[in-house]
Description:
- It is a single chain.
- The protein contains ten helices and 15 strands.
- 42% of the residues are buried.
- The longest helix is centred in the C-terminal third of the chain and has 19 residues, at 311-329.
- By secondary structure, the chain is α/β, with parallel strands linked by helices.
- It binds nicotinamide-adenine-dinucleotide.
- Nicotinamide-adenine-dinucleotide is lined by residues 11-17, 36-39, 42, 59, 74-77, 79, 83, 97-98, 124, 126.
Amino acid sequence: MTRQPLGIAVVGLGYWGPNLVRNLHEIDAADVVSVCDRRSEQLSRVKRRYPSVEGTQRFEDVLANPRVDAVAVATPVGTHFDLAAAALRAGKHVFVEKPLAASSEKAQELIELAEDRGLVLMPGHTFLYSPPVNLIRKLIDTGELGEIYSISTSRVNLGLHQPDVSVAWDLGPHDFSILRYWLNETPTHVSALSRSCIMPGTPDVAFINLEFPSGTIAHVEISWLAPSKLRRTTIIGSRKMVVYDDTSSEPVRVFDSGVMVNEPETFGEYQLAYRTGDILSPRVDAQEPLELELSDFCQAILSGDSPRSSAELGLDVVRMIEAVDSSLEGNGSRVDIAEFRVGIS
Ligand SMILES: NC(=O)c1ccc[n+]([C@@H]2O[C@H](COP(=O)([O-])OP(=O)(O)OC[C@H]3O[C@@H](n4cnc5c(N)ncnc54)[C@H](O)[C@@H]3O)[C@@H](O)[C@H]2O)c1
């Protein structure tokens, strides 16, 4: 029997970790019993807000704490594997912020550790819980948009330059997880172009092309170097088109627009009919994705069901980022993602 509420520890209290603590406090199935950060100032900041929660600078204390059923990791990506593996070996369920690990081998190792022990391992792909993203998934799944021809997306703003990872490892997981979730497939080929404008060796702008087995093509633009914040995705379907702007109060707009090809009267004379119909802005629920995501983590532990943001999806996302890196090493070469398919043992 799993106890309720679940005792949860949050490790890493920098920029993102305090958001996990705040949202977990809103969830009935969760009880934040411990918070951990190596840096005392980060720890004190959170402890001031939640004085009854135990605080420690030593991760070992979290692992040894019998009140901790699950660990939520919000530390830099280079540390994800060691912390998550140690928590799984100590018998704790693990939520680990995106990306799941710094390589597909490490991500696969975590999946096997969790499976062997019957524990939940969930990567934090927050956008899979975003109401607009789910509304669009429904439009795709029900066939309302028709065949998805192409998707282009811009996720750019000024900063924050990360000291240890490229923009592809930092922002890429958001678009890659959304595309994987919408299309329910991983790309076959990836090619990318990037530039390290500010810090040598750390790409801060990237243009990435993805080709999917169904024929859909996607273009992802990510950058820490842009004058204003853009979170804009355009989806072109054979029946309808969608513009998703995550910064807008009307985040999803469905365009009843398209092109029809009429049968040629004589050989080669195609008649194209352009259709520009209504533009609809469906109502979107105002729920915080992070709270929905952490609730799903708790439910996965309690029910044994796989969370929407599954470890397998997390592994696919890591493989997509590795393919981007490989393309960049090959000066923008078109990389077959099968090279990064880690063997399931
Ligand atoms: N889901 C999202 O939308 C979202 C948004 C931002 C960041 N993130 C993810 O959250 C993670 C953290 O990012 P951040 O921007 O908060 O980083 P950050 O550098 O601001 O904070 C990381 C914290 O982890 C602590 N830390 C590092 N190693 C530790 C260890 N071994 N034990 C205890 N504490 C340790 C550091 O002292 C620091 O306070 C990353 O994986 C990032 O990709 C996710």
